[in-house]
Specification:
InterPro entries: GAF-like_dom_sf (IPR029016), HTH_MetabolicPath_Reg (IPR050707), Tscrpt_reg_IclR_C (IPR014757), Tscrpt_reg_IclR_N (IPR005471), WH-like_DNA-bd_sf (IPR036388), WH_DNA-bd_sf (IPR036390). This is IclR family transcriptional regulator. Keywords: DNA-binding, Transcription, Transcription regulation. It holds the Pfam family IclR_C. The chain has about 270 residues and is an alpha+beta fold. The chain folds into two domains: about 10-85, Arc Repressor Mutant, subunit A (Orthogonal Bundle), CATH 1.10.10; about 90-255, 2-Layer Sandwich (Beta-Lactamase), CATH 3.30.450.40. It is about 40% helix and about 20% strand. The radius of gyration is 22 Å and the shape is elongated. The protein starts with 7 loop residues before the first strand and ends in a 15-residue tail after the last helix.
């Protein structure tokens, strides 16, 4: 049986599939804080105005776009929300990461976890505990201050400076657990600069005395840090350089699985 052919329309001298054009519109609308006029959509996506108009009409009919007629603007529709909700329900990041984390634990002999940023906290969504290792505070569903954790620092280091500043507008935003860690935006910035320089984040005793962690960010197709992947171990028991290399390799693997490109840094062997 012949495969269905994609409908194409000339745009900017090239043949662009209709599905690709629709996805570009959705991605653009998803990045906007408010609904936008037709002319801007056409310009940003690179479509003739008439083509953009007809494409939006079809997306409105399917519920992916809504038209605010009085404002002459377009925004995301309920169907787009349903797609996003479905993504969350299916937990693709957790599903993609579990085997990779288990392999990481086997290689380093220490417990590993994956956390996502939630406000000024990190929320732990996956944990793989190494046999015989002490229990950690990073159970699934636990929240910890992002600026104190290695996984949180790995994510924060990949965010724009303005976003970090918005998260930490004053010293009151810095929670203290054991009397260590950054307490001002300037101190946090210094930690994040060092994190970017090394290519991975660390913490030593700032979450749990006697325990250290090393983490790297997992990036999506836009280069945005969607999670921090960390290994936690008794301080002084294992080589931090070994842990950093293995954590980085696994973070790169998950980044590629999400369609992203690993951040530039030291050469790391590929992980199958």
């Amino acid at each position: 049986m012949d495969e269905p052919r994609q409908s194409t329309t000339p745009t900017g001298g090239s043949q662009v599939p209709a599905a690709t054009r629709a996805l570009r519109v959705l991605r653009f609308l998803a990045t906007q804080p408010d609904p936008v006029p037709l002319e801007r959509i056409a310009r940003e996506v690179g479509l003739p105005r008439s083509t953009a108009y007809h494409l939006l009409a079809a997306m409105i009919a399917e519920g992916f776009v809504t038209h605010l007629a009085e404002e002459h603007r377009y925004g995301l529709g309920v169907a787009a929300f349903e797609v996003g909700s479905g993504y969350s329900r299916q937990e693709p990041l957790q599903r993609l990461s579990r085997r990779a984390l288990a392999a990481l634990v086997d290689r380093v002999g220490q417990s590993a976890h994956l956390a996502v940023l939630h406000g000024r906290d990190v929320l732990y969504v996956v944990e793989e505990r190494a046999p015989g290792r002490p229990p950690l505070v990073t159970d699934v569903g636990v929240r910890l201050p992002a600026h104190l954790t290695a996984s949180g620092r790995a994510v924060l280091a990949g965010l724009p400076a303005a976003q970090v500043r918005a998260l930490y507008p004053s010293p009151d935003a810095f929670v203290d657990r054991h009397g260590s860690g950054p307490r001002t935006l300037g101190e946090l910035r210094a930690v994040l600069v060092e994190t970017r320089r090394r290519g991975h984040a660390t913490e030593d005793g700032e979450v749990t005395p006697g325990m250290a962690s090393t983490a790297a960010a997992v990036l999506d197709h836009n280069g945005h840090p969607v999670a921090g992947l960390a290994v936690t171990y008794p301080a002084g028991e294992v080589s931090p350089a070994l842990v950093a290399r293995e954590v980085g390799r696994t973070a790169d693997l998950l980044t590629r699985r999400l369609g992203g490109h690993p951040a530039a840094g030291p050469e790391r062997p590929a992980v199958d």
